[in-house]
Design a protein that fits this description.
homodimer; alpha/beta; Rossmann fold; 6-stranded mixed sheet; 4-stranded parallel sheet; 12 helices; about 45% helix
């Protein structure tokens, strides 16, 4: 499957950014580590999701005319953008409760939005109906080998562009697509580096699953400011996690908020609260980084700029 | 004087960042131009002021033990940082009204802060007293050839790192140190590029001076959200402007706020409102950028993250 990640690197390179690594001397001094922040907030459509969606869409057989998905977040815009690259129609099922900005972003890239009730059953029913009616191919947000392979390209770049061998990679965990892709990429390109996933305490299905070695549901309702990681894992991403992750740790909401603000202040970049999970784990001492070179994937920058995460 | 800028490039290179250029395909499409944003918000101490202060401090003769300045803004932290590089003491006069964050930043780099009444007379009196008492060398925020030469290094990098010849450079104008340095650098490195300065309508001393060819005072009180450009020019920066600038344009407060938000949203970076003057001029059609390759210096990213510029 590492071949899939490497194929994805070549396939998506003309269509996505090779995002920069940013550093902060003051954060390095504060943590005693060398922290390398891979800025997927600068990625096309504002998140790493452009990688997986682009890889999946470009890998579709010819003859496909339309793609579909259900997503309330960054995968929607990413799939709309990827579909436009190939001139395909994109149908996106979004819960009525989705943020207006996310809806507008997907529409701006040319997607047709279908609203549904904010339940998983309603989403799946609506997506199934669209596939039946339009013949669209479903491209799920994470439970798809081509999507996972695409997400793994961020770690390939981070490992290649780092100023030396990485000791540790820290990755937020929602559905597990980014974690799984990072694990596959790291196993091949930096086999001595540990990969640790980070979740909110209030959305800890991956951490419970990792301990029990049983796929766990999310405990509803999920209440975290890290709205990008509220989804539960799939059997595929869970399996890869169990085989390859070093650990899964959880962090408090207060730490997520503080780490988000720290990234805005020190790195001068706009990132989503979900991005801040790895730094929150460092600041809460859930992972030991002293003396280590640590790669951190900042997942996206699509936030509501009408209010600050720490004032909400 | 271009030799001074080139000497500054070599002198400060080990101590400042060669900041990246960011682009936005959606902003390019919207404006019909190729916009290249030089990200001095990522610079040491969070603004381009690190360039001029570092150059001035490193150019001081040996035997100097201390430096001093008066500043309520980014020059204070920049001078403190530069002084620390050489192991010099730094004394900074700040008005009592200066933002607590700016004061804390200068203190964090090791400066001694002296508070004074918020008038130019009180500032100059306090600075003069410190120089008399401590023997410190005064490093002013812009009215200094070594500071101007240092600020010019940003344009040298922007011209060198652009993907082709620049047609236009857009620069915010406060005291005129960045404008003057950019003009000198551009005259030598991109002589066919026009340089246009941008000011708030409510702090338009440079625009009035450019039209009348007479150094103009700022009309007090200055009320603009672009707090980095409230100072009036000095005779030196005024003279360089008159000889070399193509034009000086002004923009409304509403345009500055809107452009600030646009930069945060599209480029995913944290910038001060003063940074947004050039984009505001483009969006208000004060400059014609269609079909042109345009370099824009984003001056700094030190904002109060307790409130958003567009909610204040």
């Amino acid at each position: 499957m590492i071949a899939d990640v490497e194929e994805a690197c070549g396939r998506i390179a003309p269509h996505v950014h090779r995002t920069p690594i940013l550093r902060s001397r003051s954060l390095d001094r504060q943590t005693g580590a060398e922290l390398l922040f891979k800025c997927e907030n600068f990625q096309k459509t504002g998140s790493f999701k452009a990688r997986g969606a682009t890889n999946a869409v470009l890998a579709l057989p010819s003859g496909v005319r339309a793609v579909a998905t259900h997503s309330s977040g960054n995968h929607a815009a990413a799939l709309a953008h990827a579909a436009a690259l190939r001139g395909l129609a994109a149908h996106v099922v979004m819960p009525e409760t989705a943020a207006a900005a996310k809806r507008a972003a997907a529409e701006a890239y040319g997607a047709t939005i279908v609203s549904c009730a904010p339940t998983l059953a309603a989403r799946e029913e609506a997506a199934g109906r669209i596939v039946a009616e339009t013949g669209a191919t479903l491209v799920p947000p994470f439970d798809d080998p081509a999507v996972v392979a695409g997400q793994g390209t961020a770690a390939v770049e981070l490992i290649a562009d780092a100023p030396g061998p990485l000791d540790l990679l820290l990755v937020p965990v929602g559905g597990g697509g980014l974690l799984a892709g990072t694990l596959i990429a790291t196993a091949a390109h930096a086999p001595r580096a540990a990969v640790i996933g980070v979740e909110p305490e209030t959305a800890d299905d991956a951490a419970r699953g990792f301990r029990t070695r049983m796929l766990q549901p999310q405990v509803l309702p999920v209440t975290t400011i890290a709205d990008g990681v509220t989804t539960a894992m799939s059997p595929m991403t869970f399996e890869i996690m169990c085989w390859l992750a070093r650990d899964i740790v959880t962090v408090s909401e207060a730490a997520i908020v503080a780490a988000t603000r720290t990234i805005w202040e020190r790195l001068k970049i706009v990132v989503e609260p979900s991005c801040a999970l790895p730094l929150a784990a460092i600041l809460e001492r859930k992972v030991d980084v002293a003396g280590r070179r640590v790669g951190i994937i900042l997942t996206g920058g699509n936030v509501d700029l009408d209010r600050l995460p720490w004032n909400s």
